[in-house]
Amino acid sequence: MLLANQSAAITGSSRGIGRAIAIRMAQEGAKVIVNGTDESRVQAVVQEIRQSGGIAVGVAESVGTMDGGAKIISTAIQQFGRIDILVNNAGIIRDKIAHKLSEEDWDAVVDTHLKGTFTCTRAALPSMREHKHGCIINMTSTAGLHGTVGQLNYSAAKAGILGMTWTLALELENYGISVNAIAPAALTDMTLPYVERARRDAASTGQSFNDDYWKLGTPEEAAELAVALSLPQSRGITGAVFSVNGGDIGLWERPQHHSLASRKVEAWDAVEIFKQALTNIT
User: Which positions fall inside the Ketoreductase domain (predicted)?
Assistant: First the structure.
């Protein structure tokens, strides 16, 4: 088995992509922590894994608090001896256009995605650093790379996860811990309503529906990439952001800096800046 004797905690694994990752890792021999906030959903996945011969323990906790993140990781260590793989997958959607977005909707999304990635990572690092071994996979989104209308909270959280991924990769490189991110496009029970809404909106306005953009894969395809990144032979890969969209897997490059103008006088002048640097952008 590819992940024999490995322990893995997958947050938000009671449904969707997280569930697929938990099941797939268990199939490859990993001892799995299944997490979610709905106890019945969590236990359903645990039982599914156990009935297939796998090892799983459920933790019904929110990743949005330090205590919740600590409970998820401490359970993995107590049950399995240590934590080898952490998949920060937990997430929710509260989509609204910016001027209609409430503080409650902002906090709910940012706390689950961004803070949740921190709470679990922070709890896992002492064990991973001690053993000089570990794999962290953060689930991000193209919304964090180029923005999405109506997803200010979600886009901000996912962009923050990118920064966390790159920083953690630098900090942990000398400890044998790989940190990568996956930006998946998969049709799940959470994403389906939004895809259908986009289709309806396109039809009602007479616009074409961009089938290429909305080409979505399955949770199982995203799970297979997560397993691949968890393999011992993949541990040298770190600080990378991968996309998985149906049959395609890609690599996002980090932002590149381009020089626009060089000051040739004692002080910059706003009009001169516009002429030299901004004319070709507007």
Answer: 6-185
Element of type H or E holding 45: helix 39-51
In whole angstroms, give the CA distance from residue 7 to residue 114. 23
pLDDT profile of the chain (282 residues), mean per 10: 97 97 99 98 99 98 99 99 98 94 98 99 98 98 90 96 98 98 74 60 64 68 96 96 89 91 87 87 71
Report the 10 Å Cβ neighbour count for 211: 8
Annotated catalytic residue within 154, 175, 194, 213 = 154
CATH pick for 7-187+216-252 out of 3.40.190.10, 3.30.10.20, 3.40.50.720, 3.40.50.1100: 3.40.50.720
- Any catalytic annotation for residue 154? yes
